[in-house]
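Would you mind writing out the residues of a protein together with its fold in token form for me to study?
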Amino acid sequence: MKILRLLTSIVLLTVAIGTLNGCTRPGEDEFNKGIEAQRDNQLEQAKELFHTALSKDPSLAEAHINLGYVYLREKNYDKAWEETTVGLEKIKESHKTIVMGQTWQDQAALAYNNLAKIVFEKAIQAKKAGLITEQKRHQEHTVSLLNQALELVPDLEMTQKNLAYVQRWIKEQ
């Protein structure tokens, strides 16, 4: 009788694990593979995987945010801005994330951080071109975006460091 209960438990556990493994959202597997490619600095592959994930589920905010990051790394700032803002809006609406061990606020803060990098690059370019008014506007926008990230996740070390760097850069101008 104990053996029968043990076998029944094993079968039920196996079925439960099999069911849970198949419970990912459409596009989530491609998103996870895209993250791996991004970590391995295989940006073209990551971009393709994020696009595939989004073709299966356009509401995957994290895929938009990470695709935006890939574009940022490629210095394609317009596409980076577009994808990141789409992802940010989606994650702020849903208040959910598919990234295990993270909150939607973590993902939104990451998006704000990436947007700040884009705007800070514009501030640098404006300085090089001697466009002081534009430079100051971009500096203020950068600080605002980083502060929005910190409002969501106050102890995010990356954002704290980025804000400190930007503030030092502004003082040196």
Remarks:
- The longest helix spans residues 104-128.
